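Session log. Operator J.P. requested a structure for one protein chain; no other inputs attached. Running the standard single-chain path with token output.
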Amino acid sequence: MVIVAAISDSDQSLAIAAEADKLARAFGDELHFVHVIEETEYTRIVEKQSDMRDTGTGSVEDNEAARAASGIEEVVSSDYEIVGRVGNPGKKVVEYADEVDARYLVVGGRSRSPVGKAVFGSVTQSILLNTDRPVVTVTEQET
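Structure written below.
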């Protein structure tokens, strides 16, 4: 089976990676890090690259995923795969977890007040509400 960890450009991604690595080692599972960029961000990057006549290798989503995964090798001892996707982050993470039949999803979150939870949607909340797979949430306190 596979442990799927959703990462982003945040500092919290290293804590998510470390927790996912613990699970992968405990179960002897594969480890996949998924990074999703919204379509508007994807379009912005593509336009910027065309303006700069950038002919870099790899797809935009894979390059962004590799950038988001920078530093993960310092906290992960398992072999891992980095996956890039474009679209709604909550939806794409759940779709990928279903695609690979993930044992667990590992996501980040912030400890927020009830009002904060009601007013601001979150990728974590979307994942929790739209998957039937076990989800491990690595939280950080809201500042």
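Operator note: The first strand starts at residue 2 and ends at 6.
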